[in-house]
Amino acid sequence: MIDISVFSHTLEDLWNQKITPHEAEKQLRQLLYEDLEFAKIDHHRALRKGFPEVVFCQGKTQDQIITILKKMSEQYPNLLATRVQSHQFKPIQKEIPDIQYHPTAR
What we know:
The longest helix has 12 residues, at 4-15. This protein is mainly α. The strands form two sheets. It has a two-stranded antiparallel sheet. A two-stranded parallel ribbon has the order 3-4. The two termini are 26 Å apart. The protein has helices at 4-15, 21-32, 45-49, 62-73, 86-95, and strands at 33-35, 40-42, 55-56, 81-82. It folds into two domains: 1-33, no CATH class; 36-106, no CATH class. A hairpin with a 4-residue loop joins strand 1 (33-35) and strand 2 (40-42).
């Protein structure tokens, strides 16, 4: 879910001239989409659909998967990642201990 306090703080900081309009725009855009260069996280999807974006892991490196999941877990307690290879799971679990893996799921 989008953190409405970030929205409020951004507007307050803009009003108090603590940030420029350009900085405010950048912060507000990140409430909708966050560009990680190798992936774009759709933060607005949770509002539109009731569940955050599903992470399609096929073709991504372990580091990319970890980065995406860590970023998303800052805002969402429950995530779904698909097409994770069994050899990728242990390194991911070291970084995100409460993650679960279901080998039969596709």
